[in-house]
Amino acid sequence: MKLNAVATLMKSLGFDRYDKMAMMEMLKQELYPEEPKKEVKVKETGPKYEFSMLYEDGVVSNYLRQDQWPVGVIVERKGMKFAIYCKQHECYDNTNRQDAERYASTLPRVEGIGWKVITERHCRAICDAVFFRNLNSQLDKVGWRKIVESRSKEVLTSDGHLTSTEWEIWFVMDL
């Protein structure tokens, strides 16, 4: 009965899919608080990568881990340390800023830290030809999409002004 009331309230407030997903994530965190971490032995495999990778359990490693897939690549540059979300997500390119920000709130938190739409400051931190090429190379080697390298397509930032008609959506987590 209470569930019907909540569904009716969300419908009357005009909740869209992203709002509902954010609400579900908040309820999940409220109902199932995080348990203390247990030491887990994992097997790291393959070559050592230049950039560390962040896993859902908060572990940072330069290696791929057996039976686990990283959620992001860590960038430490220009006084900043952040992870770029690299898993496949359903916030499609050309999504508007408000919907992208709502979607970011639904992504799984890592050690209590949430994801957000990338900012211009994050973009500037990776905007060096050699660094950018190395970062994109690792993204490609691990099987993720590469960050746009085009004059006609941009990256949506939460604090910038788009001048193109097409843009990519990327999320970051400040560490």
Q: What labels would you give this structure?
A:
single chain; 175 residues; alpha+beta; six-stranded antiparallel sheet; 10 strands
Query: Structural class from helices and strands?
Result: alpha+beta
Q: Which runs of at least 5 residues are low in confidence (pLDDT < 50)?
A: none
The profile of the biggest β sheet is:
6 strands, antiparallel
Query: Rounded to an integer, what's the Rg over CA atoms?
Result: 18 Å
Helical segment count: 5
Element pattern in H and E? HHEEEEEEHEHHEEE
Q: Approximately how much beta-strand content do the residues carry?
A: 15-25%
Instruction: Report helical residue fraction.
Output: 25-40%
Task: Explain what this protein looks like in three dimensions.
The protein is an alpha+beta fold and 175 residues long. 31% of the residues lie in helices and 18% in strands. The chain contains five helices and ten strands, in the order ααββββββαβααβββ. The strands form three sheets. The protein has a six-stranded antiparallel β-sheet. Strands 1-4 form a two-stranded antiparallel sheet. A two-stranded parallel sheet has the order 8-9. A hairpin with a 2-residue loop joins strand 5 and strand 6 (80-85). The longest helix is centred in the N-terminal third of the chain and has 15 residues, at 17-31. The chain starts with a helix and ends with a strand. The relative contact order is 0.16.
Would you summarize the structure shown here?
By secondary structure, the protein is of the alpha+beta class.
